């Protein structure tokens, strides 16, 4: 469905249900880890495209156990492959939802910013004739002062 103006509300009960669902995910997957940048860098990379490779390697190990050294943990390897497959599926589903959340947040944020910009223009105009609006206009204008400072490139030193 193409993007259109989003007009939605999340009830407190629905919001709590979504938060509870995230908590349930964390509770049901207590082994999830958070890697440091260094840990990520050192790991052997394995994305969704690697799944068929590890599944084929598992089949080769299962069908030819005599070629593996006795120290090779075939049962542990099998568990890792199965968990990798399950987590790959869950990650794909979660990434899809996360992408939709981000796109929707971006779209609704844009709608809110457009409306807020209109309010700011009205407040600026009203501040010229309505007592007490100048501080509101100044407060709203702070957002654009900060944004302008971030986008300016540093002046070269001579």
Average pLDDT confidence is 91
In angstroms, what is the radius of gyration?
27 Å
DSSP helix fraction: 55-70%
Helix-strand category: mainly alpha
Low-pLDDT stretches are none
Largest sheet: none
Number of helices, counting only DSSP H or I runs of 4 residues or more: 5
Distance between the termini: 54 Å
Total number of strands = 0
The amount of beta strand, in percent, is under 5%
The backbone outline, from C-alpha atoms, is elongated
N-to-C series of helices and strands: HHHHH
Characterise the protein shown here:
With 158 residues, the protein is mainly α. It has a domain of 103 residues. Helix content is 68%, strand content 0%. The radius of gyration is 27 Å and the shape is elongated.
Write the layout of secondary structure elements.
Elements: H1 12-28, H2 37-42, H3 51-63, H4 74-127, H5 134-151
Helix pairs in contact: 3-4, 4-5
Provide the descriptors you would attach to this structure in a database record.
158 residues, mainly alpha
Please summarize what this structure is.
With 158 residues, the protein is an all-alpha fold. The protein has helices at 12-28, 37-42, 51-63, 74-127, 134-151.
């Amino acid at each position: 469905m193409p993007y259109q103006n989003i007009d939605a509300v999340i009830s407190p009960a629905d919001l709590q249900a979504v938060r509870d669902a995230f908590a349930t995910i964390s509770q049901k997957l207590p082994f999830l880890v958070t890697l440091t940048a260094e840990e990520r860098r050192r790991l052997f990379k394995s994305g969704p495209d690697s799944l068929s490779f590890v599944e084929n390697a598992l089949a080769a190990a299962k069908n030819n156990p005599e070629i593996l050294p006795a120290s090779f943990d075939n049962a542990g390897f099998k568990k890792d492959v199965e968990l990798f497959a399950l987590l790959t599926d869950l990650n794909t589903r979660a990434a899809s939802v996360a992408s939709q959340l981000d796109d929707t947040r971006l779209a609704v944020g844009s709608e809110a910013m457009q409306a807020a910009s209109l309010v700011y223009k009205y407040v600026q105009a009203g501040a010229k004739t309505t007592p007490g609006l100048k501080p509101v206009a100044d407060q709203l204008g702070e957002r654009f002062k900060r944004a302008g400072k971030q986008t300016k490139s540093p002046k070269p030193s001579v």
